[in-house]
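mind reviewing these tokens:
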Amino acid sequence: MTGFNSGSFKDPPKPYRPLTRWWWTALDVTRDELLREVAEMDEKGFYGCEIQTLA
């Protein structure tokens, strides 16, 4: 394939990194914990996260 760079798999641009869907029970969500865990996911290289609360 032309233009293929296998090295790009090691550190892809952020828009091409994994996304995750995260389900939280409504009573277990605190603002500080949510911010901490989202920041950790960003540090680990995730592009984003969809967070849904269950009531």
